[in-house]
Amino acid sequence: MEESTAPGKDSPVPIRVLLVDDQPLLRTGFRMILEAERDIAVVGEAGDGVQALDQVRALQPDVVLMDIRMPRMDGVEATRRITGPAKDGPVKVLVLTTFDLDEYVVEALRAGASGFLLKDAPAAELVQAIRVVGAGEAMLAPSITRRLLDKYAGRLPTGEESLPDSLATLTEREVEVLKLVARGLSNAEIAADLFVSETTVKTHVGHVLTKLELRDRVQAAVYAYESGLVRPGS
């Protein structure tokens, strides 16, 4: 008996993806990889940031796979407009970069990107990244979080400045968790470090994000460094 292709309780709701890159060949490659997955649907393409904004409004994707360096409007500005206060829906942006220490990546994360991925990443890693970001999580390898922030330490606080008042809203344990998030630890690693359950850590992380009005762990990590709570290289 043939397997039904009609939507049912066992059929995953596909993650709607918009591909944004000024190189058509790369977009074609990404499309072929992603469309082979049952739970991912490529709903459109754009060749620059301006087209991306139009396509986001028209197609309402869940995830935008965003190149950084493009004509007319780069990926950083497009990300800022897509994820900013005036956004129409909870669209997530996964930034693509050629170099793992591209200077624009930090700006893209500040602009609201949920993470970034190298263009030469294996197909399986691309697929997993789309799924992670589509589920509302941040996609940024812990080692790369540290490397990025360490590399641009000169643009971040030295630690001599006074800490922002917003940190006073956090409990002592929440501050502890924020520091560990900033250092790139996963929930499981934080749980082991603090001798608590992963569920407890997840709750603390949620409280941190809510109190500081941050979108995800990536923004929490950047906040911790920018506020001076964690110093680059520490």
TrEMBL record:
Residues 16-134 form the Response regulatory domain. Pfam families: GerE, Response_reg. Keywords: DNA-binding, Phosphoprotein, Transcription, Transcription regulation. InterPro entries: CheY-like_superfamily, NreC/VraR/RcsB-like_REC, Sig_transdc_resp-reg_C-effctor, Sig_transdc_resp-reg_receiver, Tscrpt_reg_LuxR_C, WalR-like. The modification 4-aspartylphosphate is found at residue 67. The keyword Transcription regulation applies. Residues 163-228 form the HTH luxR-type domain. The keyword Transcription applies. This is Response regulator transcription factor.
